[in-house]
């Protein structure tokens, strides 16, 4: 034995042990690939097989459960070719079936569920319909990734048996889509909603107006869309949602237990409205349509009474179309509005929102004003504003630009997006805790988390998918899963195993080198 070699042999031995201890083992069962990670997963080591003979039963005459059951059947059919029957159970289901139950279990809250998979039965129980729908996403993720393909696959549709009990950490987990800088039609928005639903998100904030475009039909002010909706960043044709189309989006989201929050940004970010109606301008002269990317140059005329009639009409029509509790009034980057005008303006707009039976939410600058009880401040860049809002007793929607702005480039080589706040690689997008990010904003102050996609540089659904994925699943987990034990080193394995699911869903995601993508 050449003893001089001993130290290097020892080093190799120790290094070998360390690496096998720390090298995360690729998950070998879908139970270990769930995103967001459930509160508790108890594997029982068997398998349940979905077959052409499987039926979906619901207990009791619950129309919600039947509709959710049909949603599951519709999701499973393309890849399996099975037309699963959905009906009300009469007695205990026979082996090989799925049973959906809505039954009182208050600890599960609005969106929690319990999923018991045995070799004979998949039983999903929830306290409320939304919980049943969230549990359906877990069933999808327990099946092989090819379940998300659109053509029939000849594979055994096996699920690992387990008992899962699960519910969200935050009441709101969502995303914002800016349809003002670049317009995205109803089908694109529906696809975005489908992707949010897969990761148990429950909010879509639509940024409906800005300098470059007005995107929602307001019958009492038609030029807002006929003129203000006719262009976009870069000079494209823009577009807008008729009220019927907006209602279609709202219903599509509601069917997936996702709430729409519409935003009319004001007093800044209003050039599209100012270009549409000369009388909205202090000088009674309409501005030109704007197709650039600057911000902070526009303001409604806060001194004119007409401005508040305009706002009352707009918010009134939008509130009537929006079942959700919130209307977003923007309030950001009002650099062309004097502070002494901004404060009474936002105070008045909050009153108008309240008059129409809604709660106001605004970007964190609104904390400069006296906030109505239950007004929410959305933290994006100024922690002082957000702490001021907390000091007024307001809840915070966490959308820190340095962590949750989806238009931030991954790194300096990313062609799309901007990087004024930060480069946000997939690990950075995941490795933060909303409840500790800003001193003075704790868990009890936070309404939820929202990842925002601004679209100055984003023009197509592919662009959206590239910037949103694979970061979005991380935000879904931050918003849903327990903080204890959360770590990038563990999560990245699960995310790597989701590559095949995103691929099966035709998501054009960014293949970050920081993720061990499973083949
Ligand atoms: N800030 C602006 C957005 C958008 C964004 C791009 C907010 C609240 C920069 N306001 O973020 O309109 O231009 O990253």
Number of domains: 2
Question: Roughly what fraction of the amino acids lie in strands?
Answer: 15-25%
Q: Describe the main β-sheet briefly.
A: 8 strands, parallel, barrel
Return the CATH architecture of the largest domain. Answer: Alpha-Beta Barrel
CATH topology of the largest domain: TIM Barrel
Please count the helical segments. Answer: 16
Please write out the topology.
Elements (H helix, E strand, L loop, with lengths): L5 H17 L17 E11 L5 E3 L4 H18 L5 E3 L8 E6 L10 E5 L3 E6 L2 H14 L14 E10 L5 E7 L7 H13 L4 E5 L15 H4 L16 H12 L4 E8 L4 H6 L28 H17 L4 E5 L8 H17 L3 E5 L12 E4 L3 H9 L3 E4 L2 H4 L21 H5 L3 H4 L8 E8 L7 H8 L3 H9 L7 H17 L15
Parallel strand pairs: 2-3, 2-4, 4-6, 8-9, 8-15, 9-10, 10-11, 11-12, 12-13, 13-14, 14-15
Antiparallel strand pairs: 1-7, 5-6, 5-7
Helix pairs in contact: 2-3, 4-6, 8-9
The protein binds ligand IFG.
In short, what is this structure?
The chain is of the alpha/beta class and 519 residues long. The protein contains 16 helices and 15 strands.
Notes on the structure:
By secondary structure, the protein is of the alpha/beta class. It has 2 domains: about 30-165, Chitobiase, domain 2; about 170-505, Alpha-Beta Barrel (TIM Barrel), CATH 3.20.20. Helices cover about 35% and strands about 15% of the residues. It has 16 helices and 15 strands. It has helices at about 5-20, 65-80, 130-140, 185-200, 225, 245-255, 270-275, 305-320, 340-355, 385-390, 400-405, 425-430, 435, 460-470, 470-480, 490-505, and strands at about 40-50, 55-60, 85-90, 95-100, 115, 120-125, 155-165, 170-180, 205, 260-265, 325-330, 360-365, 375-380, 395-400, 445-455. Strands 8-9-10-11-12-13-14-15 form an 8-stranded parallel β-barrel, surrounded by 7 helices. Helix 4 (about 185-200) links the parallel strand 8 (about 170-180) and strand 9 (about 205). The chain is globular and about 75 Å long. The model is unreliable at about 15-30 (pLDDT under 50). The structure holds ligand IFG. Ligand IFG binds near residues 332, 333, 380 and 405.
């Amino acid at each position: 034995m050449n003893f001089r070699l001993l130290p290097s042999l020892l080093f190799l031995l120790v290094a070998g042990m360390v690496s096998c201890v720390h090298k995360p083992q690729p998950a070998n069962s879908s139970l270990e690939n769930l995103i967001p990670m459930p509160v508790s997963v108890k594997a029982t080591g068997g398998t349940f097989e979905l077959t052409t003979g499987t039926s979906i039963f619901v207990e009791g005459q619950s129309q919600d459960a039947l509709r959710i059951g049909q949603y599951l059947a519709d999701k499973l059919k393309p890849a399996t070719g099975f037309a699963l029957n959905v009906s009300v159970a009469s007695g205990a289901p026979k082996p090989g079936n799925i049973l959906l139950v809505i039954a009182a279990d208050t600890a599960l809250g609005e969106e929690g569920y319990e999923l018991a998979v045995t070799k004979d039965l998949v039983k999903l129980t929830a306290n409320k319909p939304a919980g049943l729908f969230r549990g359906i996403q877990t069933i999808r993720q327990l099946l092989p990734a090819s379940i998300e393909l659109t053509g029939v696959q000849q594979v055994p549709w096996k699920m690992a048996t387990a008992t899962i009990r699960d519910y969200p950490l935050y009441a709101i987990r969502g995303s914002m889509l800016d349809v003002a800088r670049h317009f995205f039609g109803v089908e694109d928005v529906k696809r975005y909603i489908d992707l949010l639903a897969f990761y148990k998100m429950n909010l879509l904030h639509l940024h409906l107006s800005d300098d470059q475009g007005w995107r929602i039909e307001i019958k009492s002010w038609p030029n807002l869309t006929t003129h203000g909706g006719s262009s976009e960043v870069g000079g494209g044709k823009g577009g807008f949602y008729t009220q019927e189309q907006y209602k279609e989006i709202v219903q599509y989201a509601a069917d997936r237990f996702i709430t729409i929050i519409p935003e009319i940004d004001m007093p800044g970010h209003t050039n599209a409205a100012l270009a549409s109606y000369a009388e909205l301008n202090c000088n009674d002269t309409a501005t030109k349509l704007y197709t650039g990317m600057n911000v902070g140059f526009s303001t409604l005329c806060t001194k004119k009474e007409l401005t508040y009639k305009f706002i009352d009409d707009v918010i009134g029509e939008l509130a009537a179309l929006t079942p959700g509790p919130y209307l977003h009034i923007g309030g950001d980057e009002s650099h062309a509005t004097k502070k002494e005008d901004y404060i009474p303006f936002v105070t008045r707009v909050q009153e108008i929102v309240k008059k129409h039976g809604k709660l106001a939410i605004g970007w964190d600058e609104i904390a400069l004003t006296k906030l109505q009880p239950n007004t929410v401040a959305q933290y994006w860049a100024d922690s002082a504003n957000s702490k001021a809002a907390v000091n007024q007793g307001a809840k915070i929607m966490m959308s820190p630009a340095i962590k949750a702005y989806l238009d931030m480039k991954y790194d300096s080589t990313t062609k799309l997006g901007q990087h004024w706040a930060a480069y946000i690689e997939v690990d950075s997008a995941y490795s933060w805790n909303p409840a500790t990010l800003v001193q003075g904003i704790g868990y009890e102050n936070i309404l939820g988390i929202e990842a925002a996609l601004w679209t100055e540089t984003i023009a197509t659904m592919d662009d959206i998918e590239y910037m949103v994925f694979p970061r979005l699943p991380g935000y879904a987990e931050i918003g849903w899963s327990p903080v204890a034990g959360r770590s990038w080193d563990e999560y990245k394995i699960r995310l790597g195993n989701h590559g095949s699911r995103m691929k099966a869903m035709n998501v054009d995601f960014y293949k970050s080198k920081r993720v061990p993508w499973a083949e």
